[in-house]
Amino acid sequence: GEDVEQSLFLSVREGDSSVINCTYTDSSSTYLYWYKQEPGAGLQLLTYIFSNMDMKQDQRLTVLLNKKDKHLSLRIADTQTGDSAIYFCAESPLDGSGNTGKLIFGQGTTLQVKP
Amino acid sequence: ETGVTQSPTHLIKTRGQQVTLRCSSQSGHNTVSWYQQALGQGPQFIFQYYREEENGRGNFPPRFSGLQFPNYSSELNVNALELDDSALYLCASSLGGGAETQYFGPGTRLLVL
Q1: pLDDT tens digits for chain B (113 residues)?
Q2: If contacts are CB pairs under 8 Å, which of residues 50-69 in chain A contact chain B?
Q3: DSSP label at residue A28
Q4: Which of B2, B43, B98 sits opposite A105 (nearest CB)?
Q5: Contact yes or no for B44 and A105 at CB 8 A
Q6: Residue in B83, B82, B89 with CA at minimum distance from that of residue B109
């Protein structure tokens, strides 16, 4: 089946690290994504990781992938008030003839950063 | 900015009406995907168009239909609107069919009364 789950809410203090977790079900997914959505806006691609990687770092962002447990995490170092938003993880499952083109999203984690 | 534009930004319709939403893809991209995002939920895949052909469809009824034009812009049409169709409609463009990295537009917020 296709299902992506995330915790709904995370609150941190400015300057702390934030860790947002996600579990997915489809082991065929070739890429896993993190998107950010600010109020009233579309989705901004933050980063992605290829399924044969364990870790990817991009400035303040670190993505960890545990394929065995189908667990994905996003760590934001030195979290700022501007990081307050909803964060979505997404998988891209394959069908029998190759990629379907669809992304399966979690419900989103609201990150609140307190000054 | 992703270079993906959508129009209109907001729309109010009544139940039973029809609506057309538009999306212009990022320069150089030939694929457009459409998603529906209900309030408080993650986006749900509606369908994808690659080189003017439908290239995958989610669990949406046939009254949701689409088109892609030779310039790779796209339309989403919804007939016989229902109250539950109220949502943010997002389009995403990418290069190549399949699950190439998708870049999202700002969305069209549809309210059905």
Answers
A1: 678 999 999 999 999 999 999 999 998 899 999 999 999 999 999 999 988 999 889 999 999 999 999 999 999 999 999 999 999 999 999 987 665 788 999 999 999 99
A2: none
A3: T
A4: B43
A5: yes
A6: B89
